[in-house]
């Protein structure tokens, strides 16, 4: 299959980056790619999707990776796996000899190993310039579930209708479930045996970068985890702290110890960000140091500085995130795209082991394996968002009362625009087209 055909198929089946912000995958692929990297290094604590999928579907995933390598004309494909994923590594080792252009890279179990900038450096030795993308160093990174979706599109002609979600924390049966897109979080928690505590909060995503949500929130193509924690858990309290309090605390107790900079994964890779300097500039309202403010655009918002590095419990990530948002609102872009030539010499010694991070976050008790549950779940209603990807919102091609089948196209994007098509995730009747979503009721309950 040539690149044009492959891209058309990926677009047709609505595939987006399942492990990140949902960048449409067909727009990522180009013929000046030298290396395709399979990202099976899910770095967020407690998440088990990559590990489970590679263990079970190694052959399919490698077939899709190999096809991609050939289609883009790359020299090689790299399977990047944590060295702690013993079963997954074994599964890949059994298959990999059938694919001469593929090799395994066993990665240390550190945070954030799955960050694209870190991953590209660890697997190829290439440093992505500040504000750049893997394509700037002739690489492309594809997440594990995305690769499985490519396999499903090419070999089974199946579009994206489901996603894999680790449901864990205070639930009775922690597991990684295959869930129809649009399923409510409330239903998902019931399917994981129900919540096991009374006063709780829910995080969608990992504990480091995930967001607090309500049970009415729905699963999208990029949802990878739903975590339930007691209301007073330190991870929850940190997420609830507001900017004004963060700023006041920064003004009064930031000791300028530099630990946030010493351990910052982007600073260690050679990028110019220095979170301690940004904290100083913000706390002291220093307006002359533009370079320091601009460097916030390099922050990946991995959260290591606030969850691990800062001995004062400050939140550089949150304040830097707010600053980034303000710069973007005002149309300010990263114009100084420095390209570092070398990483910090101390980098190897300053990596943060994930186990230690989990302990620091008081999450050790919740770090359970769970199991991969791919049974057909009893989900009677889905509310499918029209914006589950980077780019423009998809436009419904169905109306209220239409009968739809699982896998049927229900929303499309204008040709050539950045976005992704959306397909029905269950059989049923379209009961509502409100809230930038399409609701489908399995039993024809058209009250929505
Ligand atoms: S680690 Fe904390 S106290 Fe130290 S410089 Fe950074 S924000 Fe300030
Ligand atoms: S969140 Fe903190 S540690 Fe992570 S990249 Fe940004 S400044 Fe660095």
List the helices and strands and how they pair.
Blueprint: H1 3-12, E1 35-40, H2 49-72, E2 76-82, H3 86-95, E3 102-107, E4 110-111, H4 116-124, E5 139-143, H5 144-156, E6 162-169, E7 175-180, H6 185-191, E8 200-204, E9 211-213, E10 225-230, H7 234-240, H8 243-253, H9 259-262, H10 265-268, H11 275-283, H12 290-294, H13 304-309, H14 316-329, E11 352-353, H15 354-360, E12 372-373, E13 381-385, E14 395-396, E15 403-404, E16 409-412, E17 422-423, E18 428-432, E19 437-441
Parallel strand pairs: 1-2, 1-5, 2-3, 6-10, 7-12
Antiparallel strand pairs: 4-11, 6-7, 8-9, 8-10, 13-19, 14-16, 15-18, 16-17, 18-19
The protein binds iron/sulfur cluster (2 copies).
Could you walk me through the main structural features you see in this protein, from its secondary elements to its overall organization?
The protein is α/β, with parallel strands linked by helices and 448 residues long. Helix content is 31%, strand content 19%. The protein has 15 helices and 19 strands. It has helices spanning 3-12, 49-72, 86-95, 116-124, 144-156, 185-191, 234-240, 243-253, 259-262, 265-268, 275-283, 290-294, 304-309, 316-329, 354-360; strands at residues 35-40, 76-82, 102-107, 110-111, 139-143, 162-169, 175-180, 200-204, 211-213, 225-230, 352-353, 372-373, 381-385, 395-396, 403-404, 409-412, 422-423, 428-432, 437-441. Strand 6 and strand 7 (175-180) form a beta hairpin. The longest helix is centred in the N-terminal third of the chain and has 24 residues, at 49-72. The protein starts with a helix and ends in a 7-residue tail after the last strand. The model has no long low-confidence stretch (mean pLDDT 94). One iron/sulfur cluster (SF4) binds at residues 264-266, 273, 275, 299-305, 316-317, 320.
